[in-house]
Every structure is written in C-alpha cells, then in structure tokens.
Design a protein that fits this description.
It is globular, with a radius of gyration of 19 Å. The protein is α+β, with helices and mostly antiparallel strands. Helix 2 packs antiparallel against helix 3. It has four helices and 13 strands. Helices cover 22% and strands 30% of the residues. It has a six-stranded antiparallel sheet with strand order 3-4-7-10-11-12, with helices on one face.
Length: 214
C-alpha cells in the first residue's frame, strides 16, 4: 500500500490503511510441516520475509563456509546483517552506522562468533512535506513505526533471530525493546533515539563497545 522502495511510493489514505490493518493475524496462516505446505485462511493475507530473509541467508552461508569449505575466520556482510566467523587473538570490530549522518560510524562493537544486525529508518524511505516515511511499519497503526528510536542493533549467535528482533524492537521502542532483549539469554541490544542518544543492554560495556561519533 505504501510502496516504499518502489516507484509507487505514496502516503495512503487513512481509510485504505484501516481496511487492511485489521486483517493482520498469524492465525490465518496454516503450516503443515509434514507436507511442507502453507495456506492462507484469508485471501488478503500475504507473507513478506524481509524481516528474516537476510538473517536466514547469513546463517546458511556460514554453515556452508564452515562445514563444507572449512573456512576458519572471516566476515559475511549482507548489508545491515554482519556475521563473524572465528578470529585470532582479537575480536572482530563491527561498525554501527550513525542514523543521523549515514556517512559516519556511530559506534563499534567487538564480537566473536556473533552476528550484528541493525534496523533503521535511514535505508528505505521517502520524504513528503519534510516528513520521513520509512519501511518499518507498526502493524497496529499501519503507519511507519514512531516509538522514539531510529536505529536498533541486535547482537547474538543466530542471524535470523537478530534480524527478527531488530525489527520487533524498533517497533516496540526503547523501553519495551530493552525489556524484551534483557529477558532473553545470549542476546544484546543497542538502541539509538531521535536525538542520537544511545541505550545499551547490560551485556554491552567498555570491553566490547566504543562510541566513535555522538
């Protein structure tokens, strides 16, 4: 409906959004694992795997690289999704884009055998009347999520998990997103608000995180 990232970008009428947002319901999707089939109970339901596809791909690529080709160290960069493989004495340093100035690196995280995935409002968007309309939609409102954060970064082992959680926490906002990530073992998060302020989960500290521009 929004057409963000296409040649048909537009701000939909509120009536158009209201017609569609009430139809979201995962219960309309029926999976049959035995037969590897999927069907929809509502013909208006469609699936867009954009929030997990790159994460899944990164995890599968790492398996192939490590198991088949026996690669012991390296970095996979899928654009917003970075997967690290092994290292020597030091950890990999992964930069996080400054959402207020995408030419800058805001901060660096130091990781080993982890993935770093960021969702932000600065990659896919259009501007109308000085308002930025980005591609991360709040399913409750049908409009781009506006909960005070403009960038969320998730650090964990599996990229598909980080991919899903970076999108989910962006929509939830800093406080709810922070609470969610703190409740899950083995996952850390970094949140940047509209003013460029950084909030980190408890596992992010001076030993594995450095602010470059703030």
């Amino acid at each position: 409906l929004w057409g963000i990232g296409t040649d048909n970008e537009k701000i939909p009428q509120e009536e158009e959004i209201n017609l569609l947002k009430g139809k979201k319901n995962y219960k309309n999707i029926v999976l049959n694992k035995e037969e590897s089939t999927i069907r929809f109970l509502n013909e208006d339901i469609k699936l867009d795997l954009g929030a997990i596809a790159k994460g899944y791909a990164a995890d599968e690529m790492k398996k192939i690289i490590c198991d088949k080709y026996k690669i012991e160290k390296g970095i996979l960069n899928l654009g917003g999704n970075v997967m690290t493989i092994g290292s020597e004495n030091e950890k990999w340093k992964v930069g996080i884009t400054n959402p207020l100035n995408t030419e800058e690196v805001l901060a660096v995280v130091k990781v080993q055998e982890k993935t770093v995935v960021t969702s932000g409002n600065y990659e896919r968007y259009f501007i109308k009347d000085n308002v930025r309309y980005h591609h991360i939609l709040n399913p409750d409102t049908g409009y781009p999520a506006e909960e005070g954060v403009i960038s969320t970064t998730i650090i964990t082992k599996n990229s598909i998990d980080a991919d899903a959680l970076s999108t989910a926490t962006y929509i939830l906002g800093k406080d709810k997103g922070l609470k969610l990530i703190e409740s899950i073992d083995g996952i850390e998060g970094i949140f940047v608000d509209n003013e460029g302020n950084i909030t980190k989960t408890s596992g992010i500290n001076e030993s594995n995180f450095e602010v470059i521009n703030n």
